[in-house]
Design a protein that fits this description.
By secondary structure, the chain is an all-alpha fold. The protein has a single domain, classed as nmb1532 protein domain like (Four Helix Bundle (Hemerythrin (Met), subunit A)), CATH 1.20.120. It contains seven helices and no strands. The chain is globular.
């Protein structure tokens, strides 16, 4: 079902935001982050979320507007939120390119732009997970879901599917490494892995 897919995509996006945040910490420490990874994450957001993820949410939102206008009123303007997210992403891309072009600038400004993007994305997804998706599940009919499914562009996630696009391979490897480190940390000394 579409909501399960969108929820899984949110979990995947959270992983990418964690990687971006980790690379920002490297940058803030005065070291050189893995810019290939950072650029790949920006590209993922520009391509995958803009072309596939947000349009799917917009289809669900349009149906919800028909079925439960009061819920839509409480949620606010989802399309506007997506546009603002795109603008914040563009600022992140510009800030990274500014750094890579060796132009003088304040590290704090870059940090601020990237952290603003991360924070807004996390808040936005939390709202969708906790308010938008449950409202849609409650209000939409089986016929609505069929219509949405028929209109959805079936695609594979370029980072998290079984077929990883080459330009995202380094990001995928990075995420797998972080997950392995987290599992080892959870297991701790003397605790066998699950």
């Amino acid at each position: 079902m579409i909501i399960q897919r969108l929820s899984q995509e949110h979990r995947n996006i959270r992983k990418l935001l964690a990687v971006l945040e980790r690379e920002l910490e490297v940058f803030d420490a005065g070291k050189r982050p893995d810019y290939e990874v950072v650029r790949s994450i920006i590209s993922y957001f520009m391509v995958y979320t803009e072309i596939y993820h947000h349009p799917q949410e917009d289809l669900v939102y349009a149906k919800l507007r028909m079925r439960d206008p009061a819920a839509v009123e409480r949620l606010g303007n989802l399309a506007r939120e997506h546009r603002l997210g795109t603008q914040r992403l563009q600022k992140v891309a510009e800030a990274i390119e500014f750094v890579l072009s060796d132009r003088e600038g304040l590290r704090q400004d870059v940090d601020s732009v990237v952290r603003d993007f991360i924070a807004h994305e996390r808040r936005h997804m939390t709202m969708e997970d906790q308010e938008f998706f449950p409202a849609a599940l409650k209000a939409l009919t089986p016929a609505d879901w069929k219509e949405i499914a028929a209109a959805v562009d079936h695609h594979r996630d370029p980072v998290f599917s079984d077929v990883v696009e080459d330009r995202f391979r380094r990001v995928r490897e990075y995420i797998l490494q972080l997950e392995a480190e987290a599992e080892a940390e959870r297991s701790g000394p003397g605790v066998p892995p699950r």
